[in-house]
């Protein structure tokens, strides 16, 4: 789900928007691959990412003049970790660390988005998490298949390994789903991940998209692709590509404090509203905007990112520093982040 970093790079290598003449460039992109630093078990290891990012910026600022002209104001970085450039999956520690100071002038393309949050930089471009397009398309079932499941969810309710006390993970929202609805016949919820997961989503009316460690989840992409009305449980979430996807019209938003009332909320929705949301979800352009296909296709997530970058142009002269001027502090941040990669 962090692979947008890799696929964005692949897309740009062959895109007609790319120039090999840096003097013609509106934007500079540095592929750092911080999300490819994994534990032996294959889990993301974001804690060392600031060291890797600092080393990459040190490299480009030492070898070429372009970073130094603006201290990164005309550069963008893809940072698809849980809390973006705060580089931690636990919110308290992400907030404590803050956005890497060297990225303060750059534009961040990130999956994380939450209003009024330390880890959301103004001007960031929020993107969907990566979900494999070919794999999902290979599991499509006939469109006329009845939606016989009212509410569907598969995933963790408690992350015991990282939250042994319980209640901190997902700010308790997922635990509330389990405690209140595990025996409710309208709710098909479980920690099991069946081989029919994608098919089951296509048989469901509502798909729960609760926050986990961070507000976003791949379920958001999967729900849109499979025409399942996303029930978004993540207070103040900033959703991707709001100009291409009318989230308020296709989804349901439930406050974290109201999870215990999910059954009442969802059964109270008029049938006409459900059918309208399903018709909107069937629009191919909305599905396209959520995916990173290879090769790229018109209107896909790559092109939505380009639209976001284009809206931030032109860079006026104020982004260029005077000779010898410095704004960013290279030695700012936790001591551990300052170690060379």
Describe the fold and architecture:
The chain is α/β, with parallel strands linked by helices. It folds into two domains: 4-130 and 294-337, no CATH class; 133-290, 3-Layer(aba) Sandwich (Rossmann fold), CATH 3.40.50. It has helices at residues 4-14, 49-63, 66-70, 91-97, 133-137, 173-181, 197-202, 219-225, 247-250, 262-267, 271-281, 284-289, 301-311; strands at residues 28-29, 75-78, 107-110, 125-126, 149-154, 187-190, 204-210, 229-233, 252-253. The strands form two sheets. Strands 6-5-7-8-9 form a five-stranded parallel β-sheet. Strands 1-2-3-4 form a four-stranded parallel β-sheet. It is globular.
Number of structural domains: 2
Helices, by number, come to: 13
Query: Strands across the major sheet, in which order?
Result: 6-5-7-8-9
Q: Calculate the mean pLDDT score and round it.
A: 94
Subcellular location: Golgi apparatus membrane
Domain Exostosin GT47: 2-269
Membrane topology: Single-pass type II membrane protein
InterPro entries: Exostosin, Exostosin_GT47
């Amino acid at each position: 789900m962090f692979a947008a970093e890799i696929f964005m790079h692949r897309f740009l290598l062959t895109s007609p928007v790319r120039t090999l003449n840096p003097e013609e460039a509106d934007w500079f992109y540095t592929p750092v691959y911080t999300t490819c630093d994994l534990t032996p078990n294959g889990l993301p290891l974001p804690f060392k990412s600031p060291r890797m990012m600092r080393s990459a910026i040190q490299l480009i600022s030492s070898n070429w003049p372009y970073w130094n002209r603006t201290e990164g104001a005309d550069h963008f970085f893809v940072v698809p970790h849980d809390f973006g450039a705060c580089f931690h999956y636990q919110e308290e520690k992400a907030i404590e660390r803050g956005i890497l100071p060297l990225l303060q002038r750059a534009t961040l393309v990130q999956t994380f988005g939450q209003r009024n949050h330390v880890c959301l930089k103004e001007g960031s471009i929020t993107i969907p998490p990566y979900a494999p397009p070919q794999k999902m398309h290979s599991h499509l079932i006939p469109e006329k298949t009845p939606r016989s499941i009212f509410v569907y969810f598969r995933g963790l309710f408690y992350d015991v390994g990282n939250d042994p006390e319980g209640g901190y993970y997902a700010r308790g929202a997922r635990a509330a789903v389990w405690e209140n609805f595990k025996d409710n016949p309208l709710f098909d919820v479980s920690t099991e991940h069946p081989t029919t997961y994608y098919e089951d989503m296509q048989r469901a009316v509502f798909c729960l998209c609760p926050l986990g460690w961070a507000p976003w989840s791949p379920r958001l992409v999967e729900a849109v692709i499979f025409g399942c009305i996303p029930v978004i449980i993540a207070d103040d979430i900033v959703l991707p590509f709001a100009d291409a996807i009318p989230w308020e019209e296709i989804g349901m938003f439930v406050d974290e404090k109201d999870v215990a009332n999910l059954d009442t909320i969802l059964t109270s929705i008029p049938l006409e509203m459900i059918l309208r949301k399903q018709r909107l979800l069937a629009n191919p352009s909305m599905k396209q905007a959520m995916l990173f296909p290879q090769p790229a296709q018109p209107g896909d997530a790559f092109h939505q990112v380009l639209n976001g970058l284009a809206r931030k142009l032109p860079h006026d002269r104020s982004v260029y520093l005077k000779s010898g001027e410095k704004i960013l502090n290279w030695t700012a941040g936790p001591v551990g982040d300052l170690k060379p990669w």
